[in-house]
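2024-03-11 09:14:02 INFO worker-7 job=invfold-0412 stage=load source=structure_tokens
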């Protein structure tokens, strides 16, 4: 959640407790992309990272 106060984008891979809820809040505010641990691959990580790097926000 500290990232949102600094405007830092987050590529979240939530896997425990309240992490998913926190990531949903960040995504709703436009600060984050979420990649569930069950579907995380090298390709999905690179795709999401590239998306974040190309976003002018």
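2024-03-11 09:14:09 INFO worker-7 stage=emit residues=57
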């Amino acid at each position: 959640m500290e990232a949102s106060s600094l405007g830092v984008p987050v590529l979240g891979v939530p896997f425990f407790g309240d992490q998913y809820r926190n990531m949903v809040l960040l995504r709703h505010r436009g600060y984050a992309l979420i990649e569930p641990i069950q579907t995380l691959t090298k390709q999905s990580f690179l795709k999401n990272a590239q998306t974040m790097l190309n976003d002018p926000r």
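2024-03-11 09:14:09 INFO worker-7 stage=report msg="The chain has a mean pLDDT of 89."
2024-03-11 09:14:10 INFO worker-7 job finished
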